[in-house]
């Protein structure tokens, strides 16, 4: 590639000059390629890899030099000799003569620089290259990465790091390349090369490890190997990036959400680190935004714009608190350096004034922000106040225009007179009252003290979304939220209030759209409606049930990936008790999509992940109990029911809502803390348990006894699923004391530590689910096929890998359509025709020659039984099994059916006369079988029995389909050891079938003769000039004669197209081989003497060609003469029509093939599947690598 000219001081150091002229020098780097300069070359090559010179310096370069100067300028470099030679030749042809005209050296230098920069600018313009995407150094590293590992352009490199890879006990210094879909390592030391490629989707464990020998190392585990990398300059950055990329891969396995680059990032500043790529910046920004959203419970599409250190004046304690301000598109947030001291969320929709206050020694660079509820927030010590104010002003302007747009939309919706919408409004909102108010049975006076405490808090700290959140707020939550305020505070603490405020009318529209719609989710919802808090009076009538139905159905339509999951009904029913219907919906959104991610999908992945986290925490905090609980298998049993329903299904209702209070305020750590407290409180009883049933009884009795003495609710019968024994009831446990003790004993659990544990467990859980899916698929079909379990597992991995590869680098269909985790195991992964072609070429024994792609298309159409253009693993294995384990009859039947294209079959009613007439043909075939010497009598009888069983209801093969079948046969044999013998046998069979087709025409009804005359006048299927329109037999023979060409039957044009190639009506030419007098009949016969019938069949064929005075050209291949088609299709004369009367049956095809022992042996010989699988796992096609089961083996050379 051309580069902006840069001066080079030492042109000869570490470089070898290969070409030179008065103005330009072409050089090759020492140590590159063969003959790299002996020991010096090896040392240079090693240093390039170790010191990152190979990423900066391509192995070839062109320097510019004026005759009287010592300063060289690099103007081009290349990764291959071909690329650099093209640049060199361009310079010689376009610049050398021009430069000789100049007299001044400075003019020459200026001209060359300007010309090169002009070429670069033109290239960037034509290829739409963005100026600041990546630095030149990183582009060179990306180019080297793709070249080293055979990756296509679609595989984007994110970053690369210097490190050591431990191969056994020997470290190899090199470079770790992290791309979107792969982890790769390359090392070149003293002539020895090492490569490693691991797909992120195959990683089962990724962790930082520290030992005495390796203080800082990263261990990457797959299903079959462990890889250790050490000696990083910045191990934390490397590990975080690897963790993020592995998370993206797991997300893709879970719900097909692949990576899409964010193009809205600001351009790279000149002072930024030069090595950082646009993708790396994108991923860093994503990680920061995720932490920002989690910290302040913001909507999932909120992007962090920036953050800065500052102080916040807090009026409640008259102090300036040191912390950080965060600014995003719709929010300004603050959190103190000292955790839990103070946090603040200011939505820009609430902001009225942003102004810079006067500077002073006490308050340098102050900034004042006022809101609609008359609160003013004073920030100070801002480093770049002017820039910050400008950014906030820009976002405020966008927010204002959004608010106006929403008001217009809402106004138009409200003014609608649609009867359905009016009905929905009347029905949905339940008179704007939550269910607990409708069915309130408690005395409001008992709540007075709690309500008064919260009102005092609001007076001091502010009320609503902009309130100061301090340690005092947390204390009030732990003491219990008043019943009347619970819904509002749940909305506030969960962040659901923000999503509801920014989506007015959204829930109402969802309810309208989902009304009257039925699917699997709605069926499950109807089934569970009456199981949702049936003991509560609010759900003992149709009003409460209808509200619950609407909320669950609306969410199922909002998020079809989740739809509906058991336990959602229990949680939603509690939300409806304290919040209005729309508020309950947004609380459910916050719960399912942000606070409990992946909990409520079909495989409850999130709950399984947190179950693993809970086990880790139990091992750390209650080690004496952990081993006992693991032996009993209790942790996995209890944690799912506890976590999925937030203890609502295992505790009395009035106590469980206190847990929900704390959960909405402090997140998932509350659930972990409480679960550990329950185990810790029952540690002695659990240690004495003999089995899991006894342990479950202990825990069930304990949770049943948790009471809320402050509750004003009447006692509601608790329908706990665990049965208690007949012993004395467990003493009451106060819920507030239990929650307080959980904070005291286990409050040190941090949210960021939980997220780190979640990542580790997510890898394990998702890979375990994938392994379970594989085992279930194999177990389902192992009895249907002759493949072994190990072979099926290997084939499944290849099948799945092809799906993943298409997700990475594009495919002809939507990945979501091909991978649906909610479907049965066999249907979860499916492939389309393009992916099938890739597997067909790797695994199917018939995939040889130029006709491979059309054959793959035919095979796919045959396997796609439901016509959805996708095939599942069972269909794939059924087709593959016939080729590897089927007998001769099964293979021939499959080959025949692949060429009978639906809609093109010749369907002729067979009358009695025709049947009786065809008996003569079959008698003739019988004579051929017995006396041709091809098969002995017992084999013949055996095949006749199979024939009778397998030939029912198969349609006929017309002329066009017959030609394609012949092409397929010749293509199959192109790489076989018995290639020549198979060609001769195929030619004999083809001739015989041609004659049978002609004989069959004699028995067609006389009523078709008139149609034949019309058909002959129709244009040919191929667009060619007609040179002969002779009807009848000659036209029939001319078309299939093309199939006698064993090599180069088709150009590449038809092979890759989606449609099947049209029939080519090519006539044979007949001539003798050079310098011999052999007839065309002798060319086709081998050394053995043919029987008269076989010979006469060919004589008929060749005679038809003689009538047209055409010639057959021959080519000598491996000392054997075979038939080939010469020239291109367009250079030969063709007939003008397809003979629609010509057809053969499966019986005729089968009988003809059985006359040739070479063909019989070819289709009967066993094929070794293990070798094909191994080859498929290791092969890497140009631009589209098919990776192995988990990773490539280390390749050492040199």
TrEMBL record:
Region annotation (Disordered) ranges: 1004-1098
Superkingdom as given in the UniProt entry: Eukaryota
Coiled coil: none
Keyword Repeat included in the entry's annotation: yes
Record-annotated EF-hand domain positions: 851-886
Gene Ontology biological process terms from the UniProt entry: system process
InterPro entries linked to this entry: EF-hand-dom_pair, EF_hand_dom, GRAM, PH-like_dom_sf, Rab-GAP-TBC_dom, Rab-GAP_TBC_sf, TCB1D9/TCB1D9B_PH-GRAM1, TCB1D9/TCB1D9B_PH-GRAM2
Gene3D superfamilies: EF-hand, Pleckstrin-homology domain (PH domain)/Phosphotyrosine-binding domain (PTB), putative rabgap domain of human tbc1 domain family member 14 like domains, Ypt/Rab-GAP domain of gyp1p, domain 1, Ypt/Rab-GAP domain of gyp1p, domain 3
Molecular function as annotated in GO: calcium ion binding; GTPase activator activity
Annotated keywords: GTPase activation, Repeat
Residue span(s) of domain Rab-GAP TBC: 480-667
One Pfam family in the UniProt entry: GRAM
Reported function: May act as a GTPase-activating protein for Rab family protein(s).
Protein name per the record: TBC1 domain family member 9
Naturally occurring in which organism (per UniProt): Cyclopterus lumpus (Lumpsucker)
């Amino acid at each position: 590639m051309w580069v902006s000219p840069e001066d080079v001081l030492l042109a000869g150091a570490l470089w070898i000059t290969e070409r030179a002229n008065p103005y330009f020098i072409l050089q090759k780097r020492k140590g590159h390629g063969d003959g790299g300069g002996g020991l010096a070359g090896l040392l240079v090559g090693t240093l390039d890899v170790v010191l990152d010179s190979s990423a900066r310096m391509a192995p070839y370069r062109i320097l510019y030099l004026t005759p009287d100067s010592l300063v060289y300028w690099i103007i081009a470099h290349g990764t291959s000799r071909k690329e650099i030679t093209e640049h060199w030749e361009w310079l010689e042809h376009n610049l050398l003569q021009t430069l000789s005209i100049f007299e001044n050296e400075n003019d020459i230098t200026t001209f060359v620089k300007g010309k090169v920069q002009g070429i670069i600018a033109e290239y960037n313009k034509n290829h739409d290259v963005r100026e600041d995407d990546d630095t030149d150094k990183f582009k060179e590293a990306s180019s080297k990465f793709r070249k080293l590992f055979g990756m296509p352009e679609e595989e984007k490199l994110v970053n690369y790091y210097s490190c050591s890879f431990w191969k056994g006990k020997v470290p190899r210094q090199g470079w770790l390349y992290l791309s979107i879909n792969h982890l790769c390592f390359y090392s070149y030391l003293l002539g020895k090369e090492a490569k490693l490629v691991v797909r992120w989707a195959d990683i089962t464990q990724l962790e930082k490890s520290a030992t005495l020998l390796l203080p800082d190392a990263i261990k990457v585990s797959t299903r079959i190997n462990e890889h250790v990398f050490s000696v990083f300059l910045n191990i934390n950055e490397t590990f975080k990036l690897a963790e993020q990329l592995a998370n993206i891969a797991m997300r893709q396995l879970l719900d097909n959400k692949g990576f899409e680059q964010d193009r809205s990032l600001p351009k790279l500043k000149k002072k930024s680190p030069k090595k950082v790529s646009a993708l790396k910046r994108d991923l860093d920004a994503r990680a920061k935004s995720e932490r920002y959203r989690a910290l302040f419970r913001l909507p999932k599409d909120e992007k962090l714009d920036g953050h800065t250190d500052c102080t916040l004046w807090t009026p409640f304690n008259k102090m300036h608190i040191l912390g950080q301000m965060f600014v995003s598109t719709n929010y300004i947030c603050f959190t103190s350096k000292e955790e839990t001291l103070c946090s603040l969320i200011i939505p820009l929709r609430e902001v009225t004034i942003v102004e810079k206050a006067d500077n002073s020694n006490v308050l340098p660079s102050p900034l004042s922000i006022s809101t609609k509820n008359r609160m003013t927030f004073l920030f100070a010590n801002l480093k770049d106040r002017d820039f910050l104010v400008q950014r906030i002003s820009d976002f405020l302007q966008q927010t204002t225009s959004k608010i106006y747009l929403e008001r217009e939309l809402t106004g138009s919706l409200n003014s609608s007179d649609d009867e359905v919408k009016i009905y929905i409004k009347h029905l949905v909102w339940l008179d704007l009252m939550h269910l607990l108010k409708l069915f309130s049975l408690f005395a409001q006076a008992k709540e007075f003290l709690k309500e008064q405490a919260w009102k005092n808090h609001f007076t001091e700290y502010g009320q609503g979304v902009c309130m100061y959140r301090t340690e005092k707020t947390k204390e009030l939550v732990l003491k219990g939220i008043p019943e009347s305020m619970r819904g509002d505070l749940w909305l506030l603490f969960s962040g659901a209030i923000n999503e509801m405020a920014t989506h007015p009318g959204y829930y109402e529209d969802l309810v309208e759209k989902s009304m009257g719609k039925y699917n699997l989710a709605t069926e499950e919802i109807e089934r569970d409606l009456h199981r949702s808090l049936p003991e509560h009076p609010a759900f003992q009538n149709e009003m409460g049930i209808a509200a619950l139905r609407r909320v669950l159905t609306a969410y199922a339509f909002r998020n079809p990936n989740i739809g509906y999951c058991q336990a959602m009904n229990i949680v939603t029913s509690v939300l409806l008790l304290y919040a209005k219907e729309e508020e309950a919906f947004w609380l459910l959104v916050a719960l399912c999509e942000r606070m409990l991610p992946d909990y409520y999908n079909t495989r409850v992945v999130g709950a399984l992940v947190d179950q693993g986290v809970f086990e880790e925490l139990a091992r750390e905090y209650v080690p004496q109990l952990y081993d006992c609980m693991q032996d009993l298998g209790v942790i996995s049993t209890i944690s799912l029911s506890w976590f999925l329903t937030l203890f609502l299904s295992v505790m009395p209702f009035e106590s469980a809502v206190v847990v929900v209070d704390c959960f909405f305020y402090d997140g998932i750590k509350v659930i972990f803390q409480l679960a550990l407290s329950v185990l810790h409180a029952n540690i002695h009883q659990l240690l004495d348990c003999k089995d899991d049933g006894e342990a479950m009884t202990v825990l069930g009795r304990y949770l049943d006894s948790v009471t809320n003495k402050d509750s004003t609710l009447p006692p509601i019968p608790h329908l706990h699923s665990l049965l208690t024994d007949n012993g004395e009831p467990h003493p009451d446990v106060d819920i507030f004391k239990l929650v307080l003790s959980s904070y005291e004993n286990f409050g040190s659990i941090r949210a960021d530590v939980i997220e780190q544990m979640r990542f580790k467990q997510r890898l394990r859980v998702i890979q375990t689910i994938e392994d379970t899916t594989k085992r279930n698929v194999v177990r389902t079909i192992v009895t249907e096929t002759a493949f072994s379990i190990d072979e099926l597992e290997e084939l499944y991995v290849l099948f799945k890998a092809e799906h993943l590869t298409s997700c990475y680098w594009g495919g002809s269909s939507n990945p979501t359509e091909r991978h649906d985790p909610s479907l049965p195991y066999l249907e979860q992964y499916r492939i389309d025709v393009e992916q099938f072609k890739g597997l067909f070429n790797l695994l199917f024994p018939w995939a040889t020659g130029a006709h491979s792609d059309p054959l793959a298309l035919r095979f796919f159409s045959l396997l796609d039984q439901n016509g959805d253009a996708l095939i599942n693993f069972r269909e794939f294995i059924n087709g593959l099994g016939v080729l590897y384990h089927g007998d001769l009859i099964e293979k021939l039947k499959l080959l025949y059916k692949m060429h009978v294209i639906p809609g093109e079959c010749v369907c002729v009613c067979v009358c009695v006369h025709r049947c009786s007439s065809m008996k003569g043909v079959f008698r003739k075939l019988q004579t051929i079988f017995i006396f041709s010497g091809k098969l002995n009598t017992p084999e013949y009888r055996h095949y006749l029995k199979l024939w009778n069983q397998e030939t029912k209801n198969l349609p006929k093969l017309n002329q066009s389909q017959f030609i394609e079948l012949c092409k397929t046969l010749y293509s199959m044999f192109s790489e076989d050891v018995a290639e020549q013998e198979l060609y001769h046998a195929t030619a004999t069979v083809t001739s015989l079938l041609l004659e049978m087709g002609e004989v069959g025409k004699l028995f067609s009804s006389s009523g078709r003769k008139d149609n034949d005359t019309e058909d002959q006048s129709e244009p040919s299927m191929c667009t060619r000039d007609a040179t002969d329109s002779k009807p009848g037999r000659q036209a029939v023979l001319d078309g299939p004669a093309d199939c006698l060409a064993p090599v180069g039957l088709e150009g590449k044009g038809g092979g890759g197209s989606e449609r099947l190639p049209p029939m080519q009506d090519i006539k044979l030419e007949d001539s003798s081989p050079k310098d011999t007098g052999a007839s065309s009949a002798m060319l086709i016969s081998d050394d053995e003497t043919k029987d008269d019938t076989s010979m006469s069949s060919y004589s008929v064929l060749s005679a038809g060609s003689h009538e047209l005075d055409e010639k057959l050209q021959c080519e000598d291949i491996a000392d054997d003469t075979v038939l080939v088609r010469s020239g291109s299709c367009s250079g030969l004369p063709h007939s003008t029509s397809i003979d629609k009367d010509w057809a053969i049956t499966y019986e005729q095809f089968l009988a003809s093939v059985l006359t040739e022992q070479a063909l019989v042996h070819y289709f009967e010989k066993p094929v070794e599947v293990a070798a094909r699988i191994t080859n498929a796992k290791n092969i890497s096609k140009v631009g589209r690598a098919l990776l192995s089961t988990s990773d490539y083996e280390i390749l050492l050379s040199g």
